[in-house]
């Protein structure tokens, strides 16, 4: 594709519809940041061999993290952090993700800059920080910790309810009681915000669903009863599969402690089962990478491939990456999950059919990305 950055439309292309089938359209243009099907725009792109889908959403990512290790991040100079965070935002956008929910680490200032269009970036909503058992105790209780996060400008409250990779154990015991989780959801709701819960399994998932959390993050050991309850309560599942594969690779290469090997290997083996359990019970699945280093950001297609490996069809994958993610982020993210007149002009332009699994393994499958009417070359 040539002159894409100057183009404001495509002629004779295929557009993904609400039924997740492609329809041939004569013109797909964009102006003032929104779609316009009445004309092809200035210097139109020939869409004969192109497929256009709504912009993807990464519903769990750490765009402000430049290194996997917090100690390494702290050693970065302010100038390095500025450059590398900008690179993270741009890499994620060119991977086709025009919307994102930052799960901790990206400041309110960075989110404002991204959403004001100051730099190439997805539209972002974020949790700013995470609430752990330690931070809740330090704040004087879970209620105060929640209020503190909200006062810092978070649009999401992220609750770390079970151990994780960096924990000394892999216990599934909940760090918070059922009543504490309910308090967090109530306070967030009163502020017009919602709650995302990091929970590998156990009672934390059950209590989060019962309390009215909007999403379960990771859910490695999600069981049938929990999946049924999540579907009934319309709780979204964000599994973040491939990050554990990447962590496993880091362990085998010696960049992470070897004592993590067996635990992470077990997670990699059983995690896809949780995705299949969610699918069997009709739980909405959204795409989330949980990426947290410069090397990881931009390789978002790895999560798409992991979801395909877990059993999603290409159609279900597109639903997870577009509709489900956009609905989860709601008005906090301007990413449209419909290619319609006057909707935000956010789209991924594919050079291969996105309804074919092999497309996602092709590093050249994405020809360009459109973000609020601006074409970003890949």
TrEMBL record:
InterPro entries reported in the protein's UniProt record: Amidohydro-rel, Metal-dep_hydrolase_composite, Metal_Hydrolase, Metallo-dep_Hydrolase
Domain called Amidohydrolase-related: residue spans: 51-376
Source taxon at top rank: Bacteria
Keywords: Hydrolase
GO function terms (MF aspect): hydrolase activity, acting on carbon-nitrogen (but not peptide) bonds
Any Pfam family: Amidohydro_1
UniProt protein name: Amidohydrolase family protein
Source organism per UniProt: Scrofimicrobium canadense
């Amino acid at each position: 594709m040539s002159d894409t950055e100057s183009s404001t439309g495509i002629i004779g292309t295929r557009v993904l519809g609400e039924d997740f089938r492609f329809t041939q359209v004569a013109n797909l243009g964009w102006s003032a940041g929104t779609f316009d099907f009445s004309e092809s725009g200035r210097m139109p792109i020939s869409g004969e061999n192109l497929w256009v889908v709504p912009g993807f959403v990464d519903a769990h990512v750490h765009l402000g993290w430049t290194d996997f290790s917090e100690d390494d991040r702290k050693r970065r100079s302010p100038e390095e952090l500025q450059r590398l965070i900008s690179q993270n935002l741009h890499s994620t956008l060119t991977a086709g993700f025009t919307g994102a929910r930052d799960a901790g680490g990206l400041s309110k200032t960075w989110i404002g800059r991204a959403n004001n269009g100051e730099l190439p970036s997805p539209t972002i909503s974020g949790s700013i920080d995470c609430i752990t058992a330690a931070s809740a105790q330090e704040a004087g209780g879970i209620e105060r910790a929640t209020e503190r996060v909200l006062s810092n400008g978070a649009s999401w409250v992220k609750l770390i309810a079970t151990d994780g990779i960096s924990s000394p154990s892999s216990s599934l015991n909940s760090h918070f009681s059922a009543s504490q989780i309910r308090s967090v959801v109530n306070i967030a709701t009163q502020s017009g915000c919602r709650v995302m819960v990091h929970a590998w399994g156990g009672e934390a998932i059950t209590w989060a669903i019962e309390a009215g959390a909007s999403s379960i993050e990771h859910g490695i050991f999600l069981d049938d009863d929990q999946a049924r309850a999540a579907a009934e309560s319309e709780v979204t599942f964000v599994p973040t599969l491939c990050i554990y594969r990447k962590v496993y690779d880091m362990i085998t290469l010696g960049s992470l402690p070897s004592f993590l090997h067996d635990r992470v290997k077990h997670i990699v083996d059983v995690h896809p089962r949780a995705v299949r359990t969610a699918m069997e019970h009709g739980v909405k699945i959204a795409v989330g990478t949980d990426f947290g280093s410069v090397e990881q950001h931009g390789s978002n297609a790895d999560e798409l491939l992991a979801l395909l490996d877990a059993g999603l069809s290409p159609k279900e994958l597109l639903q997870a990456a577009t509709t489900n993610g956009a609905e989860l982020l709601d008005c906090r993210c301007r990413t449209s999950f419909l290619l319609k007149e006057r909707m935000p002009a956010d789209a991924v332009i594919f050079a291969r059919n996105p309804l074919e699994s092999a497309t996602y393994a092709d590093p050249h499958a994405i020809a360009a990305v459109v973000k609020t009417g601006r074409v970003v070359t890949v």
